[in-house]
Write a structure and sequence with these properties.
Layout (H helix, E strand, L loop, with lengths): L9 E2 L6 E2 L3 E7 L10 H5 L6 E8 L8 E8 L3 E2 L2 E2 L14 E7 L2 E7 L4 E6 L4 E4 L3 E7 L5 E8 L15 E6 L2 E6 L4
Antiparallel strand pairs: 1-2, 3-4, 4-5, 5-13, 6-7, 8-11, 8-13, 9-10, 9-12, 14-15
Catalytic activity: alpha-D-glucose 6-phosphate = beta-D-fructose 6-phosphate
Keywords: Gluconeogenesis, Glycolysis, Isomerase
Pathway: Carbohydrate degradation; glycolysis; D-glyceraldehyde 3-phosphate and glycerone phosphate from D-glucose: step 2/4
Length: 187
């Protein structure tokens, strides 16, 4: 009997790039991040076409039980005193969780539940992060290299950015040469 062997997609763990025919890529630029950064003037000073992060993912079947696999590549930099970060989101289907694995660089994963309680986890090569359902999440690059993280999540989860229109409860800034988390004062 001749059994065929398929060659599955692969990811280079040193940089998070996929080797596959069905990779979907998206670039998020400064101009796409309206209202994300506290210092609006500093954000406006950055050219709108400046890439902040790229996401590449395997094109996957849609439906219950199906999964996406992707990697986020977040550039280093700051807007005013805030570090570059992803937009961050809840899942549209709130009960859906996600798993991140740090691949390269140094940064933080900001997690926030629906009551606005936030916490930070260090992201570095090999770190594993279980993001429970009902939890918004955002990557923040506090290092000098690209921060890359592999992610696995249900294709049915969706993204809900509108639920965070007022932003996250914490901002991560560089003040007096130190990385600090600051509570956001709304109102």
């Amino acid at each position: 009997m001749n059994i065929p062997f398929n060659v599955p997609p692969s990811v280079a763990f040193q940089n998070g790039h996929f080797t596959a025919e069905n990779v979907v890529k998206k670039v998020t630029r400064s101009g796409d991040l309206v209202g994300i950064f506290h210092d609006h003037a500093a954000w406006q000073a950055i050219p709108a076409q400046t890439p902040f992060y790229e996401v590449e993912m395997l094109d996957s079947p849609q439906g219950e039980g199906e999964l996406y696999v992707g990697a986020t590549h977040l550039h280093p930099g700051r807007v005013g005193d805030e570090f570059y970060m992803t937009r961050g989101h809840f899942h549209h289907r709130r009960e859906q969780g996600e798993v991140y694995m740090g691949l390269r660089g140094q940064g933080l994963l900001l997690l926030q539940n629906e009551r606005g309680e936030a916490r930070l986890e260090n992201v570095s090569p090999g770190s594993v992060h279980i993001i429970p359902g009902f939890t918004a999440h955002r990557l923040i690059n506090t290092g000098t290299d690209i921060l890359s993280a592999l992610a696995v999540w249900p294709t049915m989860a969706g993204h809900d950015y509108a639920a965070l229109a007022q932003g996250f409860a914490l901002r991560v800034v560089l003040q007096e040469g130190k990385i600090q988390a600051k509570e956001v004062q709304n109102g």
